[in-house]
Amino acid sequence: MEVIKQFELSKEYLESLRQGIEEANIDFIQESLDGVKVADIAAILDELSMSESIYVLRLLEKQLASDILIELDEDNLLKVLPELETAEVASWIELMDSDDGADILSLFGEKEREEVIAEIQDRVKLEQILELLRYEEDTAGGIMAKEFIRANKNWNVIQTINEIRRQAENVEKIYSIYVVNNRLQLLGRVSLKKIILAASETKIEDIFEEDVISVPVHMDQEEVAAVMRKYDLESVPVVNAKNKLVGRITVDDILDVVQEEADEDIQAMAGVSADIEESDSVFTISKARLPWLLIGVIGGLMGAKIIGFFEDGLSKYLALASFIPLVAATGGNVGIQASSLIVQSLASKSAFDDTPLQRFLKGLSVALLNGFVLGGFVFLVVVFLYGFDPIFGITVGSALFCVVLLSSFMGTVTPLVLNRFGINPAIASGPFITTTNDLLGLAVYFGVAMLLLNL
Amino acid sequence: MEVIKQFELSKEYLESLRQGIEEANIDFIQESLDGVKVADIAAILDELSMSESIYVLRLLEKQLASDILIELDEDNLLKVLPELETAEVASWIELMDSDDGADILSLFGEKEREEVIAEIQDRVKLEQILELLRYEEDTAGGIMAKEFIRANKNWNVIQTINEIRRQAENVEKIYSIYVVNNRLQLLGRVSLKKIILAASETKIEDIFEEDVISVPVHMDQEEVAAVMRKYDLESVPVVNAKNKLVGRITVDDILDVVQEEADEDIQAMAGVSADIEESDSVFTISKARLPWLLIGVIGGLMGAKIIGFFEDGLSKYLALASFIPLVAATGGNVGIQASSLIVQSLASKSAFDDTPLQRFLKGLSVALLNGFVLGGFVFLVVVFLYGFDPIFGITVGSALFCVVLLSSFMGTVTPLVLNRFGINPAIASGPFITTTNDLLGLAVYFGVAMLLLNL
């Protein structure tokens, strides 16, 4: 018993492991990894080179190697997989849960995938995996596993326990036993606790709960996560259009989904493409950032054109230049606030959501209120603290007011439009929209100034 | 069986429920809510007024009302709780899991809390709750429950099943049975599956797994989430400094933790204080946004001062004004990219993380590379496309280069400093830092211009 066995996970151990690999010190490698948890070994292998990883994997017991393989970082997997023998991968896949096997296979190109599939001997597993590969990656079907315990409603407790025994090796974690009819349609569930506490002859029919929550096989994984979170489910059965039980999703997979979706949103907001980690190379990190920065730079260069267009007015009223950052920054901030609220509400839809018109009116009210407060504040500072003409104060204040309204509108509409087209709406809080808002803000600012200052 | 019973969750039903409440149509209310899931009833009550919510809660069966109470939105709970009778709350708390009871109690003020506690009759539950209230809210102790199944290693399977039977009502979901010694120290776990498949006389000692992962009671909830996610745990035992088993955390609570932490980060990035939903009032939404917008506005006003300081130079070289948005926006974008990477890496610490020096050098390399590319690009556009003097192109390009370096530095350092002081580092990707970067960027831009253009 230990409070997480972390002591091996040191850079010192990593060095000694590397040396062990170089010296082909098989005893040391096997002994030092003995009893270390799968996730920890995977974390170690992620630090090694491709050939070192493979060397260690091949030294480990086959089931363990198979468990580790699916825990490897995707970057690392994509390097390791092509270098393994086809038969080797196939034999490891046979030892995985069907969903993990499908995940591994989906990382291969079409030709290599067919080669691996041809080597899989376990026909049942193979059919399960082939079925899973047919579903879209981000749906319930794409993340479910075929390993679950199914009991016919006419069985008794003893028959059900026998089924558990028969499947014990395949189904690692049992949360619920799903109850089906003769046509394998889902009728309900019975908990393992109830099975333990019931008499052997009790009919499943008499103890199962009917009101089980299931999800359709094509449901988006984010929606599945929302359902499991709302109803505090540890696992959820997946059914097809005919209500036939086709798989189950466990909450540990959902935990990954929630984390990944959150990371994706944050990356979209920060303007970083792809899943970058701090441990990636300088070039990789740079490559993921530069395109978004370039969008901003090109926007800035277009902004220079807009300002250049108003150069005459600017030369007459040089102070206009001073308030450019104020206008641009406020537009950006307002846009991000508005869009992130919409992104959140899109992620947690409810039956009581406002209608689009109500949404629009509420967004408008908030923008009017905030625009009025900020515009008024700026007017006061510009006139009474900075000592400018009142007409100049009115110009800056009302330009700010207009920019708040416009940016709110853009921040509200953009994620809704992106979402309609199946694009991650969180992008609306990122650099692309901020840049657009900057440009619109500049145009509004100078437009208002031309009008009010008679330039 | 249904694919999520959602049909009642319509605005039409809400209206008819409101009418039922007004007409005191108890039969209608009870019948229409019969069989509806706890989370769905809670979602309905969240849409009702405080007095309507309480009216419905009191019509429901006591256990159901207690289950619904803890599922209510916190805003709604804070309105409902003070209006309930002390004895009523106490009797509902008695029916909750200890962690939920502690959560409810922690929402009361000190005086009211004591009053409710005095009314709790169930001494065991009360002691459990009082223990939980002693732990910090965001730690393992603060989110664990006291309901779990504990078996002595000397017991056999029959004795363990009897314990499960005894606790069946208290412990709703059983994932693992935790094995302890006579001093109640955690030794390991045994799965329910193993209990079912073992012979009645089998000793627990002979079938339990020793290498169970546990978390210390003071561990931060985010770290607990990372541990459970890494090792795919559906529940984790919590131990005190003497390794005594004091509670367990289930993955459904962790799912909420992960979602909440992600929402918090996104809100910090977007510059929204407090947990705002689209359904909140105009005033509430505005109040959560205005302070952050004001920070931006005050920054903008300070920016105006900075630019005003360089007014002489600006009047000689008016085109300088045109590139203000370019410099400001790029600084902001670079800062957000750098800080969000650090925030992510802080959330998923690993033993193989780079040292601070390595981090710094890598950040510097990325910034040098990006700064060089962007500065060079801008130089080319400014000189060859826009037709400015080469010396002006060099000014804008090299100012941009400096801004990229500076903003990267700020974006990297700020979250690290915030984190050191126990503040959510995601704030570093929000408006406060963007504003600071804007100001620094302006100062650098004009500083470089003064120097190179001899203004």
TrEMBL record, chains A, B:
Matches recorded under Gene3D superfamilies: CBS-domain, MgtE N-terminal domain-like, SLC41 divalent cation transporters, integral membrane domain
UniProt keyword terms in alphabetical order: CBS domain, Cell membrane, Magnesium, Membrane, Metal-binding, Transmembrane, Transmembrane helix, Transport
Residues spanning the membrane: 290-310, 322-343, 364-388, 394-418, 430-453
Domain of life: Bacteria
Membrane topology designation: Multi-pass membrane protein
Annotated GO CC locations: plasma membrane
Domain CBS stretches: 208-264
UniProt-annotated location(s): Cell membrane; Membrane
Any GO molecular function: magnesium ion transmembrane transporter activity
First-listed, main subcellular location of the protein, grouped into a coarse class: membrane
Job of this protein: Acts as a magnesium transporter.
Family: Belongs to the SLC41A transporter family.
Subunit structure: Homodimer.
Protein name as catalogued: Magnesium transporter MgtE
Lineage: Bacteria, Pseudomonadati, Bacteroidota, Cytophagia, Cytophagales
